[in-house]
Structure formats: structure tokens, C-alpha cells
Amino acid sequence: MNFPIIHTNFWDALIAVPAIMILTQLLKVYFKIPSTFTPYIALLIGLLISIFISHPNNLFAGIFMGWFYGYAAVGNYAALKTSWVAYRNE
């Protein structure tokens, strides 16, 4: 089995992850989705973006990178929220 060559580029770090964060928050606000489902929504959006936009010719690479996109967005949101709450409590 040959593994695909997966490149992390400008799109991954500076566009995809913030786009997933924004889309997740918009969906959460407009459709009143409980916070417990937010990581699943971010993962789903990450997979969709990765499979259909970033890596349309390689399903394995799309799924692999989609997990990173989704969970990077979740981790960034958690870090930002924790930092903001800590700052506000000082």
C-alpha cells in the first residue's frame, strides 16, 4: 500500500482552520445547536472541506487531513476560550 504525499501548506494553517471555526460558530448560533455537538460539527466540516476542496483526488488524504482540520479548529477554539475566560477573571 502506497501512502499519499500530504503537504501542509498556507491553506491548512491560515484559511481552513479559521474557516471551520467560523462556520461552526455560525451554525451553533443560527440553529441553536448544543455545545456538546460542536466538536462533531467541526469534524464534519473539516472532513467536507478536506475531501472536496483540499484533496479532491485522494480520499485517504482527504479523510486524514480532515481530521486534522476539524480537531485543530476545536483545539484552537478551546485555547482561545480558555485564554479569554482567564483574562476576564483577572
Description:
With 90 residues, this protein is mostly helical. It has 3 helices and no strands. The protein has helices at 10-30, 38-54, 59-88. It is elongated and about 50 Å long. The model has no long low-confidence stretch (mean pLDDT 89).
List keywords for this structure.
single chain, 90 residues, elongated
- Pattern of helices and strands: HHH
Number of strands: 0
Average pLDDT, all residues = 89
Straight-line N-to-C gap: 54 Å
Largest sheet: none
- Secondary-structure-derived class: mainly alpha
Kindly provide the radius of gyration, computed on alpha-carbon positions and rounded to a whole number of angstroms.
15 Å
Shape: elongated
Poorly predicted segments: none
Helical proportion? over 70%
Individual helix count: 3
Strand content: under 5%
Topology:
Elements: H1 10-30, H2 38-54, H3 59-88
Helix pairs in contact: 1-2, 1-3, 2-3
Q: What is this entry, summarized?
A:
The chain is mainly α.
